[in-house]
Amino acid sequence: MTLLCRVSSVALCSLTRPHRLQKQIFLSAKICTAKNEFRRNRSTEAEYKANQWKWGATAAGALLGLGSILVFDTQKRKVTQAESKEEAVPSNPFPQYTREDVKKHTNPTDRIWVTYSGEVFDITDFVELHPGGKRILLAAGGALEPFWALYGVHKSEHVMEILQEYKVGVLIHDDTEEPQDLSDPYSGDPSRHPILKINSQKPFNAEPPPELLTENFITPNELFFKRNHLPVPNINPDEFQLIVDRPPGLKQGKPLKLSLKDLKTKYPRHEVTVTLQCAGNRRSEMNAIKQVKGLEWGTAAISTARWVGVRLRDVLLDAGYTEDVSGTQHVQFEGLDQDITGTKYGASISFKRAMSKDHEVLLAFEMNGEELPKDHGYPLRVIVPGVVGARNVKWLGRIIVSEEESLSHWQQNDYKGFNPNVDWDTVDFSSSPAIQDLPVQSAITEPCPGQTITPDHDGKVTIKGYAWSGGGREIVRVDVSMDGGKTWTVADLTGEQKEGLKWAWKLWSLEAVVPIEAKEITIICKAVDSGYNVQPDTVAPIWNLRGVLNNAWHRVRVTVGEDH
């Protein structure tokens, strides 16, 4: 809180207009007063310390919102002075910019721009004042919305009112900024937030900074990891039809065809909170042992969302299937995404899982309260809770119930695990089953590898991370070691720990004591799920040529600050 007041003072000194100064002092005073009120009324000193971090987070969040405003004073004055010299003031004095224009402003030399709600702001001069350090640069060249979704304190009427005074432009959509190149099947792909770490451009695959994953239980759509195998299709929702093959021998043998409107009106809506994880999450650690074939995923190829749609079970029942139909062992999903040869993405799950009420397999058309983004399967996708992301087919176009698994490459010749000694000369993909449920997993998101940590006056630092297990097995414990695995402490499970969220991750944190006189330490985490499944301690024994299923103990090496 002392830091907040110091930073607030510095920031306020940069203001020149009396009314702006009053507004800034008003909000800063509200934060300080709230903390002091809590201090007076706390029942114990321990309670105060336990809640102290909340005030810091609230204050930092408020200043992030305010900080984006402070630096516009010079620009605003210039605009005002220029306008005063004009005989006629235009109704809209702000210049217009496209998202491509904004993307060019990501450093102090070119100015650091961000957007919010269709408007453009320049935050260059505020970076040094930001209480959260350079984390504010994560939004450089892109939108603030995903970050404000993580820090809800920004969405106050007061912050919004002040922010409106400082825009430097308005955002427009330029139909010519992303021209369709018929020779490039990826030219119609949607724009993405520049914060994402791109692992491949075509097809597009990217993950957010790991430290943002544990800022909120639900991952904002813009920050949700992107895993595409083919170009993103452009689908007209008014012409969209889902085709569901009928059971053999049924009188009405023609396929069931459902429009998007049919799906939204004929069947009961169902919502489920689900964590999706790519089979290659943490592949980069396998590459450190021996090079594998696949994208260089870090620890952030995992995200959580609230999905809304209809149960696959209800649609299959409507098509004429029953739970005891013989010869129906698999449900195949075919996407509308395809390569230049017409080959479409496909995958399958067991018929038993598809028809199970408990497994909650969903045909989803909403994600976190919005229609599905294009990168996440608009207008319809499959959500298979507890199962590897590869089976959650996007841009769903057809459902086939069959005695066989999907014959697609991604079901038959990919997403399978092998013995560490199997190489590309000896591999036989038919000898290994397709990955479905994923094993127990955990990772450290803060601090980051190579970071310098500074313990507080009690010699402690905050460690954060996530844990998840496939098949609906909930996380029951996360253990953390600050001395390379010699001793362990149980972390606190945080976030939404309600019943009915068995398909979602658990976020965790620990106020951990840093070993005395340590200069460098290795922090380790490992999780235990409800089936008492545990993570292997090292990567080497589970290494495989595709670099999938890495769930070894996660290790982060950091340096301890000299003040310790």
Automatic annotation (TrEMBL):
Pathway it works in: Sulfur metabolism; Energy metabolism; sulfur metabolism
Keyword tags: Heme, Iron, Metal-binding, Mitochondrion, Molybdenum, Oxidoreductase
Catalysed reactions, semicolon-separated: sulfite + O2 + H2O = sulfate + H2O2
Subcellular location: Mitochondrion intermembrane space
Broadest EC class assigned to this enzyme: oxidoreductase
Pfam families linked: Cyt-b5, Mo-co_dimer, Oxidored_molyb
Highest taxon listed in the record's lineage: Eukaryota
Required cofactor names: Mo-molybdopterin; heme b
Region: Disordered, residue numbers: 82-102
Domain Cytochrome b5 heme-binding residues, every copy: 94-172
EC number(s) from the headed UniProt entry: 1.8.3.1
GO terms of biological process kind: sulfur compound metabolic process
Protein name per UniProt: Sulfite oxidase
